[in-house]
Amino acid sequence: MMNNPTANPSTATGHVLSHWLPTTRKEMDLRGWEQADVILFSADAYVDHPSFGVAVIGRVLEAEGLRVAIVPQPSWHGDLRDFKRLGRPRLWFGVAPGCMDSMVNKYTAARRLRSEDAYSPDGRHDMRPEYPTIVYTRILKQLFPDVPVVLGGIEASLRRLAHYDYWQDCILPGILALSGADMVTYGMGEKATLAISRLLMEAVESCHPTLHYDERGEACATTATFREVVQSAHAVPQTVSAYPLDDIPGGLQPDDIVLHSYEEVLRDGKLHAANFRHIEEESNKMHAHRLLQQTGGVWMVVNPPYPPLSQEELDASYDLPYTRLPHPKYKGKRIPAYEMIRHSVCLHRGCFGGCAFCTISAHQGKFIVSRSKESILREVEQITRMPDFKGYISDLGGPSANMYRMGGRNPKACQSCKKPSCLHPQVCPNLLVDHRPLLDIYRAVDAVPGVKKSFIGSGVRYDLLLHDNGDPVLNEASYQYTRELILNHVSGRLKVAPEHTSDRVLNLMRKPSFRLFRTFSRMFHDICRQAGIRQQIIPYFISSHPGCTATDMAELAVATRELDFQLEQVQDFTPTPMTVSTEAWATGYHPYTLEPVFSARTPQEKAVQRMFFFWYKPEERRRIEQELQRMGRPDLLRKLFGRKR
């Protein structure tokens, strides 16, 4: 059924189409397939690499023995031939619209079209629609109404319940209601998609009486069968399904969390904010509860997630036979996102930082799952055999680079914890901050023949580096890690993310005090000076975050001027579904306190905040002077420009 090549095509002369999952009828014929079991539609170009979600799901299902095909970036105009060309799958269609939310990928915080689409060939803008999850699903349901459609990926995951949409400036229902799909898998979807496939395979192979046959005489599971199979199992973890109000699987349970309905939150944004606290907490618990929300006369039922993968399971996912290359159809074309990650290695999943504006915990959760040293080194060795490899690993990272193999000292305490952050408002006393395993990984990778140098391109949590563990051995390991990072894994510029200078705003962001950044900056320059090297630290900052005022931004300008920074890595806050910051920005209430929170919402308010980033530009100076005069802050004028007003 499968064609799993043993040779890495990146080492071969030319391309062997059968090394990629098929994308056309011709490629299916090369494998001797009449019909695929699962067909995945993706709004990204097809890159067979473990950093691209559709490739991961495809390879996982292939390893299960399924025939999996991928249709990347189908045309949604005209005769819809791209949706028809592979025919009907034996089991189900999957819609995985890309590595990024399509609207974030397409538009800036000012709702302007981005300069390029990083996940399309040559950065083209016309290769994906807005909201491809919805567009693709509606087309598939029009063409194949009886075939189940399962949604996955970041776009569906973050829209699994009622959510605020920045681009339409309104609260929308969950994506099942918007798209007409049959089920959502949220988070990292390997286990859920395997479970769904196994249920449907069992139904097909047992000749279920409600099955029918397609034009080839192949058995196909209908949507009715799909619902029957899933309901008979009562709950596929980490999925969302819609049910009639009187037909919830297993009935309403005492520990179910019933959220305010979609219709209620439309009338009262404060109720929407209140819902979010439950959603975030249940996304970050080891033993979560089921969430239910009424929407348009049905229940949207969110089943609790699977436990985090084991190390062995994560290794198995990364050890699948990826080519690590774009499909040959893109020969001669540049895929910007692939150019960034082609020689990078992800060490772990999850992030326990819990930053208020970040979607990682909503999608991957806070519990760290780390790959084994052996799995990491196998991938590094595979990279060294790529013809274009020049000896430099671009990133040994993860959602946060230095959380590898970190977790609770007492796992039982983690079992009952529902806090979304292990670092805010202070580092959890149960957190074991041990950088020694990561130091070992860095040194082992640098010792691999063919590797000249490895870099850390992912963000580093400097509050972990500076944390006093109460253990001199662990504290020394943190310092040695910091030296190793700065001296051996930085290409002249280390990027970190203080995000703001105001402790009040940072508290709303769930970020550490700016005082820690000042300490880390001194340490960085001390280490560089002692080693006789010249390097820069590049800080990231955000304007217009909930709670941030123009005065806060003016004070940020003064603080960064005093540190001799002329800021480059800056952005306006972009509200994305399923974050604390977005719900505060959209509703005006903090989801945990339900107290009012100010946000700069108009283009004029946002422009005023952003201009303070660029106090050093002559074209901004007059506007900044006028604004500070209006604010009655001559003290800040003197600090910025050195003269009285």
Backbone shape? globular
Distance between the termini: 78 Å
Outline the low-pLDDT stretches: 1-14, 209-215
- How large is the share of residues in beta strands? 5-15%
Structural class: alpha/beta
Our count of helices gives 26
Question: How are the elements arranged and paired?
Answer:
Blueprint: H1 25-30, E1 38-42, E2 47-48, H2 53-63, E3 68-72, H3 81-84, E4 92-96, H4 102-106, H5 132-143, E5 149-151, H6 154-157, E6 163-165, E7 170-172, H7 175-179, E8 183-185, H8 190-205, E9 212-213, E10 219-220, H9 223-232, E11 239-244, E12 257-258, H10 262-267, H11 269-283, E13 291-295, E14 298-302, H12 311-318, E15 325-326, H13 336-341, E16 344-346, E17 348-349, H14 360-364, E18 369-370, H15 373-384, E19 392-393, E20 395-397, E21 407-408, H16 411-415, E22 431-432, H17 436-446, E23 453-454, H18 462-466, H19 472-488, E24 493-499, H20 503-509, H21 514-531, E25 536-543, H22 550-562, E26 569-572, H23 580-587, H24 603-611, H25 618-631, H26 634-641
Helix pairs in contact: 2-8, 8-9, 11-23, 19-21, 22-24
